[in-house]
Design a protein that fits this description.
By secondary structure, the protein is α/β, with parallel strands linked by helices. The protein is 35% helix and 15% strand. It has two domains: 5-174 and 355-371, Rossmann fold; 177-353, 3-Layer(aba) Sandwich (Rossmann fold). Strand 11 (272-275), helix 8 and strand 12 (296-298) form a beta-alpha-beta unit. The longest helix has 18 residues, at 336-353. The N and C termini lie close together (11 Å).
């Protein structure tokens, strides 16, 4: 049996979000063909490791140089030396870009490197920072490939970061769509019991500023009729979201159970999946809602409109404000037949285009290409 590939993952953080969920899904899919070392730029944010399958060989690095700090030759030298221990280096987002720059400054003996960009935090949600764009443009010239999940990011990579087309690879996110067709666990959302004739609007998101969840609360506050808003996630914006609900007079209709893993166990308690983010690319939560046969009500961010079915297009708001978001949610609440049509079409599209098997095959091919070792990942 061939020696497993020794893969280094440099993450901005390793709490469970979209990029971490994808990285873990790939680790699980590669099985015995690889072993993994994980570095988190925020060393205490390691929640995604709980999703790594039993038997996958991995470790959380204890001796890696920090990914945070001011740029310096000394830091780059230390990071480059550490990366030389591995067969392949995978870097993720702005928080790990110094790993890419280290390879540019110290290329001798460097293993192949693939950088992954999945989007932007609140500080770049409304516009990219010029100095970061310059830094990315310089650093990314040292990456063997740049992987992005969306058309929007592909355009930024080509036009703003000036990356050669042959090094930019758009690979749509994928999930295990079949899991989302199952009936929900009756106790899947702690503290939630569905009431007769109410419509349940759900959101799956970290409670962070960029997710713009107070806007979703305000939009729901303007909707008449029986509804419940369930926001699944955890983070520093919890109190702000609760305050918004109290101000809108819907505190008794807001359910916030915290972070819950395995969304396929509970997402079908929802009637609608809502997205209010300031910045997204190809959100996993949208794919999860689609795979569960649900309609998506969203602000016009990232690739969301091109991801959903044509039947769902009317429920992607035409402007990024709470009035338009309220209007599309209200339309879905008022018309059960439109919910059913959009949901069924979404499920069909998710299975055809966004199943995890397609994503795994494309990342496997990319990693083996930069390694020059076809079949190395099984």
């Amino acid at each position: 049996m061939a020696r497993p590939l020794n893969i280094l993952h440099l993450h901005s953080s390793f709490s469970l979000g979209g990029k971490e969920a994808r990285a873990v899904a790939l680790m699980n899919a590669f099985g015995d063909a690889a072993k993994h070392t994980i570095v988190s730029g925020l060393p205490d944010e390691l929640g995604a490791r709980d999703s790594i399958a039993k038997g996958i060989r991995y470790e959380i690095a204890q001796d890696a140089p920090s990914l945070t700090g001011k740029p310096s030759v000394k830091r780059y030298e230390a990071i480059a030396a550490y990366m030389r221990r591995f067969d392949l280096v995978l870097t993720y987002n702005w928080g790990a870009i110094d790993g890419v720059m280290a390879r540019r400054v110290y290329p001798k003996g460097a293993p192949p490197l693939v950088h992954h960009e999945d989007g932007f935090n609140a500080d770049e949600a409304r516009g990219l920072k010029i100095e970061r764009n310059i830094y990315r443009r310089i650093a990314l010239s040292a990456a063997n490939a740049l992987a992005v999940p969306s058309h929007v990011l592909e355009g930024i990579a080509l036009r703003t970061w000036k990356q050669p087309a042959e090094r930019v690879h758009r690979i749509p996110n994928g999930i295990a769509t079949a899991l989302y067709a199952r009936d929900p666990d009756p106790n899947g959302i702690p503290g939630f019991v569905r009431q007769p004739k109410e419509i349940v609007v759900g959101a799956l998101a970290g409670l962070r500023v960029v997710k713009n969840l107070p806007m979703l609360v305000r939009a729901m506050g303007g909707i008449p009729g029986r509804f419940r808003l369930v926001i699944v996630g955890e983070g520093p914006e919890r109190a702000t979201i609760q305050q918004a609900a109290a101000a809108m007079g819907i505190a008794d209709r807001l359910v916030m159970p915290g972070f819950l893993e395995r969304p396929y166990n509970y997402i079908r308690h929802f009637d609608i999946v809502a997205l209010s983010s300031l910045s997204e690319q190809a959100p996993i939560s949208v794919l999860e809602g689609m795979a569960a046969g649900l309609p998506i009500a969203s602000l016009p961010v990232g690739d969301v409109r091109s991801m959903v079915s044509e039947a769902n297009h009317p429920f992607i708001a035409d402007a990024p404000n709470e009035v338009r978001l309220r209007d599309v949610i209200q339309a879905l609440i008022a018309h059960p037949e439109l919910r059913a049509q959009a949901g069924a079409a979404n499920q069909q599209r998710a299975r055809a285009e966004f199943d995890q098997s397609h994503m795994v095959a494309r990342y496997k091919a990319l990693y083996e290409q930069v390694l020059g070792r076809p079949g190395a990942l099984g």
